[in-house]
Amino acid sequence: MIAAQREFDIVLYGATGFVGRLTAEYLARAGAGARIALAGRSTERLLAVRDTLGDEARSWPVLAADAASPSSLNEMAARTRVVVTTVGPYNRYGMPLVAACAAAGTDYADLTGEAMFIREAIDLYHKQAADTGARIVHCCGFDCVPSDMTVYALYRAARDDGAGELTDTAYVVRALSGGLSGGTIASLMDVMDASSSDAEVRRQLLDPYTLSTDRAAEPELGPQPDQPWGRGSQIAPELAGLWTAGYLMASIDTRIVRRSNALLDWAYGRRFRYSEYMSLGSSPAAPVASAVLAGFGNAAFGLGSRYFRRLPRRLLDRIVPKPGTGPGPAARERGYYRIETYTTTTSGARYVARIEQQGDPGYKATSVLLGECGLALALDRDKLSELRGVLTPAAAMGEALLDRLGPAGVSLRTERLN
């Protein structure tokens, strides 16, 4: 493993972008004692961002780095313990930085929601990162920290109770206010574009274990669709009367959670099945909405994954939110999410983990989650997993991140139901 004194604890790469600026603001408030630098293509714009952050950030250095210049990324990675990056879509711009961090033994955290980008990072750099001691941690925002960490919290509760391994586990979005970020939409469009051009990419995107450490070692548990639907009572008695549909971001969240299980040597269990839903309420229209949304979601992916490349990309780019843009301060503050994850263990014990956070999920909440992941990697190294390579939030920093969420304003509680 590479061991060297580093000049910085954290370099925030992409600090002039919309979510990058929000993450810089959060680190200026929460990163007391950390040695932080800002990085991006324009030192002038970086200095302008730094000037808005207050006294805590006034001495932060700024570094010029560009995805088109691997040498600048190599130099940046060599100077810091952790690189936190908001520069996406990652499939277009992210891999040179993964390569730089893997080579330098530098920890890395990003906001990607692109399964094939993660699969490529695993195939190209997992072994090298493991050898150099780097933790390459993907999906450190609203996708997929609530998913990954509620399941990890359930595993820990069941383990501590001696209640057996996890089996059927379901994540249910009970309430959410806010929009998808322009970066998330750009990432989704890139995924659809790639899948419509390559049958092998489509096959891998449909595989529930496409991010596994060892696909052949995964159990055969039957279909695990990304867009399930039905009555809430099928998930948990506590949801009786509600109707549900599949959650939009399940295609990435579920695969990260399953990768966490594999990285942790299937500690959650060999019969662990995981799915994600959103609650549609109990009105007379709810069952119709459940069926329609499930049908639409499956049809949209099925058709989009084959024909997306035929759509006029210029028109799509004009009508969807652009990366680097987002809502104003009042809208970001009004946003929130509230999620419940239910599980049943092999002994029949039932648990729920509840997570909630104030702030628009794709913007303010994500900047807090990414900031805390960066701080955990940089400052809580004695609490981190011994694992190295291409990891997930739970596998890399489960205990450290659990300890950080509460003080950061993220409520995560587990309860035994029987």
Word description of this protein:
It is a single chain. The protein is an alpha/beta fold and 418 residues long. The protein contains 15 helices and 14 strands. α2 (43-50) links the parallel β2 and β3 (62-64). The longest helix has 22 residues, at 286-307. The radius of gyration is 20 Å and the shape is globular.
In short:
The chain is α/β, with parallel strands linked by helices and 418 residues long. 44% of the residues lie in helices and 19% in strands.
Largest sheet: 7 strands, parallel
How confident overall, as mean pLDDT? Answer: 91
Percent strand equals 15-25%
Q: Helicity, in percent?
A: 40-55%
Structural class category? alpha/beta
Shape: globular
Please tally the helical runs, counting DSSP H or I stretches of 4 or more residues. Answer: 15
**Topology as H/E string?**
EHEHEHEHHEHEHEHHEEHEHHHEEHEHE
Question: Could you list the spans in which at least 5 consecutive residues all have pLDDT below 50?
Answer: none
Instruction: Strand order, main sheet: write it out.
Output: 3-2-1-4-5-6-13
Number of extended strands? 14
Rg for CA atoms = 20 Å
* Distance, first to last CA: 46 Å
